[in-house]
Amino acid sequence: MTAAVVRALRRDPLLSALVVLALLAKVALFARVADLPLRGDEVAYRDAGCALANLVRDLAALHGPDGAELSRNVVGSGWFMPGMGLVLAPLYLVAPHADDTTARAWLGLVSGVVFVLAVLAARRSLGRPFAIALSLFPALVPVWVLLSLTAYGDLLAGLVLVLLVCRLVDAVRASRQGTPPTLREGARLGLLAITVVYLRSSAVLAVVAIAVTAVAVLLPALHRRAHWPAVRRAGPALVAAAAVFAGVLLPWSVAASVVLESRVVTTTSVPTALANTFGDRGQVCYGPCDPGSTVWFAPVRYAREVSRATGEGEVAVLDQMSGHAREDVTPHGYARDVVANVGRYLSVDGFGSLLKPPGTPHDRGFAQWVARDLSRGIFLPVAALVLAALLVVSRRRFSDQVVAVLVKVGLLALLTQPFVHLAGSRYWTTAGTLAGLALVVLGRVVAGAVRPGPPDAGDEPSRWLTGVQWALSGATVAAVATVAALAA
Amino acid sequence: MWSRSSEHDGPSSDSPGRPPRDRRALTLLLIATCLAVVAVALSPTLGRAVPSGRYRPTLPPDTIALGCYPLPAGLTLDFPYQVRSDGDLHGQRVLVLQWDELDAAEVRRLLDAALARAGLPRRTAAVTSYPDAGPGTIVRGTVVLRLPVVRLASDDPACRDPATSKRFPADWAPSTEYG
To answer: What is the 3-state secondary structure (H, E, C) of A365-391?
Structure first.
């Protein structure tokens, strides 16, 4: 292990030092959250982990699984796919009574390993600058490091998304040279894609958008170089990717649908989220929901009561509740809510003030400055650069164009979040990794404009990818302008 | 950057056939599998993890079915409903329900029959349909019943939970905050 670190340091001192620094920051900030009990949705992920560990335990002991425990803790109300439950299950399998400090240490270890894998993959597939960027942003943003010690799946989903982008770039590169993806590569892509969705179901849009874009780049590249037979040989890989994606998604969808007696694909939370975000919260339960709870739990309790009275599935009830609460939504009100959501999305310091030792004074001390102010101080300028990256067009090298298109498509798909859901100050962590990659995209476009040079042989730019980027830039400007005009 | 970095390319001279990276990955996979098998085999002897179940509390029967605060003898609610609030106001019990899936006339007819059985006047129940209620709508409208005051008549623990009895303390905040 030590030898491997020394070898890595010798091979690439800067990148290695940055990775070590990011991991040291994790160790240092662990002290801030070591005594912080799992809170909010983390409790649901812990419960899922416990129940899944018990499932394995029961099967190993040749007992029947505890269906009630699984229904209640893994499916629950169908809000969360069991990705983080699966991450935590090995811990509760070997240490069933592990305390929350141990759980945080385990979560930090897992996110640390996946971070290193993402950096290595970025270095191998995209190039060293991308790996360095990832090790700087988001890896050195204090609140990102703190969130890497929590059970929220957003951050891990962002890291696995990088692994997916890297593999897709590999596949496009090989296709450009006339080699179609193999069955195994297809299966691996499908597995990475569904892993992202399991960790954070709202990332499904980004995963699908990135995958469709990659296929739309890959097949013409393959056709140009190796014609129809090669395109046909790519078919099985694409089928394998889709089959693995669907095959892993299916057990969740079936289990959630059966337990909740409704059709569930990924999550049941969308109607309630839409109602809470854009509708009249005083009408979600055809009037106010029961007091003394939250905008999430009270509507579900109500839907369960209606379901109990009528025999209708609770998801169908939630759908109708959402429609009723949103009857009077106007374009102006919707746009204003989106603007407010964007503000919440960018408030990355929110978790900086939550993730601290219990009983510590709010808003005071050096550690709070690091967690909140420093995080915000790094994040906001980077966010401005990422916005610039979304607007510039890479048109000098095919290799740069592929990364630019996949990163932009992924980012834009993730940034639809404030348009459909009450934004939270941790949601950026899914997009954060792609934002790190976008910085290099921007840097390369600027460098190319300042010092233009011919591309390497075989790396000539594609007009199709230039066009796609213009379309993406146009869509970004149009979306911002429309929301601004409607909200005014 | 478009060409793969050379250190990972091709088989190295000391291992014909399989690249060292693949061999290392295979070894790691083998070790991980062995550890996983041992962990799974030992797991039943280590005890059970205890999930909190906090995100999906059990749902007890509704307050009327539990008989927490009974309805007057003979008054039955013969339609799908959920109790929205219950409490005493100016010497009267005010029980607010929503009904589901039936049209207002049908609910009125069923209530009239039940009120007659209980010897209560028709005005005891006010029935109001929601303006957007249509044939496919599940929740259709509100019934407000003004009844004689009764005391708690069940020792079921759920009856003491306002979430079930729907007798909410006045100082409970509305559930409209993001949390």
So the answer is: HHHHHHHHHHHHHHHHHHHHHHHHHHH
Check CB contact of B1 with chain A, cutoff 8 Å: yes
- A12 interfaces chain B, CB cutoff of 8 Å: no
Q: Which of A50, A324, A456 sits opposite B49 (nearest CB)?
A: A50
Confidence of residue B15 (pLDDT cuts 50, 70, 90): very low
Least Cα separation, residue A305 to chain B (angstroms): 6
Tell me which chain A residues have a C-beta less than 8 angstroms from the C-beta of B53. 47, 72-73
Q: Which of residues 127-166 of B touch A (CB under 8 A)?
A: 130, 132, 137-139, 142, 162-163, 166
Considering only CB atoms, which chain A residues are within 8 Å of B51? Answer: 46-48, 50-51, 54, 69, 72-73
Nearest neighbour of B51 by CB, restricted to A51, A77, A458: A51
Residues 6+ apart with CB under 8 A from A462: A217, A221, A398, A401
Distance from CA of B130 to the nearest CA of A (A): 9
pTM over 0.90: yes
User: Is the ipTM, as predicted for this complex, more than 0.95?
Assistant: no
A396-421 pLDDT, tens per residue? 999 999 999 999 999 999 999 999 88
Does the beta carbon of A302 lie under 8 angstroms from any beta carbon of chain B? yes
Contacts of B157 (CB under 8 A, 6+ apart): none
Q: Which of A88, A116, A172, A290 to mutate to test the interface with B (most CBs of B within 10 A)?
A: A290
Closest-CA distance of chain B to residue A290, Å? 7
Determine the residue of chain B that is closest to A48 in CA distance.
B51
Q: How far is CA A192 from CA A75, A113, A150, A181, in A?
A: 22, 16, 21, 15
Give the pLDDT score at B179.
56
Q: Which helix (H) or strand (E) holds B139?
A: strand B139-147
